[in-house]
Specification:
By secondary structure, the chain is an alpha/beta fold. 39% of the residues lie in helices and 21% in strands. The strands form six sheets. The protein has a seven-stranded mixed beta sheet, with helices on both faces. Strands 9-8-7-10-11-21 form a six-stranded mixed beta sheet, sandwiched between helices.
Length: 495
Amino acid sequence: MQWIDGRSAVGSGDELSIINPATGQVIETFAGANSADVDLAVAAAKRAFPAWSSAPPVVRSTALYKLAEILTERADEFARVESLQTGKPIRLATGFDLPGTIDNVIFFAGAARDSEGRAQGEYSPDHTSSIRREAVGVVGSIAPWNYPLQMAGWKILPAVAAGCTIVLKPSELTPLTSVMFAEAARDAGFPDGVINVVVGTGAQAGEALVSHPDVDMVSFTGSTNTGRRVMETAAKSAKRVHLELGGKAPFLVFDDADLEAAIHGAVAASLINGGQDCTAATRAYIQRPLYEQFVAGVAKLFDQINIGDPLDTATDMGSLVSVTHRDRVHGFVERAVAAGAKVVVGGSAPAGSGAYYRPTLITDARQDSEIVQDEVFGPVLVVLPFDTDEEGLAAAVDTPYGLAASVWTQNVYRANKATRTLRAGTVWVNDHIPIISEMPHGGFGASGFGKDMSVYSLQEYTVVKHVMSDNTGVAKKDWHRTIFDQAGTDTRKGN
């Protein structure tokens, strides 16, 4: 299950099992990684770094283009495994996860040959300055369980395109496609040690990776609380840190919005991946004239969602990632009801086995309640009314998170004001969820810092170096007088 220095390896840690959450059946049992395995992976990445970082950009680009070809050829296989280990519908895996990952690979294949640097020039009369962007070094990355393949891509692609080498720790719940990704990269021509994958728990592998003295940068995607611990650990050795953390995205609908579009958008944006998406719509704020119609429309569509076998193409929503996580989601709903909120539809697990949970629509919650303020990470949408534009905007930003948001209106001035006011890394207008490789993804506040995708992501994995060259050939510079008194003749050339 481990992938170290270009080959499969057996872990040295505790035994772990990958479970199909839709059936409860064990897919695979394996020995997890521990600190010894992390040491081996980091050592391999460190050995590979000098050659990989100094290779011409065309070498990295060519390997990435080949990787895109391999992923395209094996797309059905990857999609099936992704569905099996996560419980997500095969329709989502084939129509979103795989195309998005392949497009990311192609984007970074091009970006690898377009390393940005400031043109050289004379900013001092006697010197020429230039800017180089150089690879950070060995990157230790930790990815979450909700989009295993895409998150592996988001971590690996910009790092290797920039010339870094990487040790990735995917979630031990859903590691299969991450290891498959590394194997495909080997087949695409990536040298041994450039991409390594260690599969273990946070306690046995994650801590060792983040604290490792030979890791130069840490990139983490996951919960805000865990992200804070990662940052604290990395700070002890002054590592660069990139964090993409939790979200609680507002879905702000003004009274001039296209109601049908907003209803359909809310259903899709709140139920994507079973709501296990940090950018999912979780708090819908609806201006009073549209509130009742919006609630009725969303409730009707929620009731029509087909929950079932993730491998059936007719399934709209599969299972959540685990029974433990399903019970966590249900706990939020139960506490919301106890605090006075109302469940319009859903609010329970369907009969039968598997980690399934019904699409759940909640109203009558208080703005300061847990269900409104905290990340549920499940198919739960809370709807709250507002009266004035200012009231709606104030409620939308009333959260520590700032990853994503959307505004729904046909008035360009309202839209522009909302996009200026909403504190989020991505703000959609009359849509919610679409992402593209050319544009960055990342948040404000408790949602972390740093960008995934786009050239901004590539820059995260580079260090800016200023190179300053003397143009005079003079041994005794005028500025030396500020340090020591100079004597002797002028040694300027030509004298």
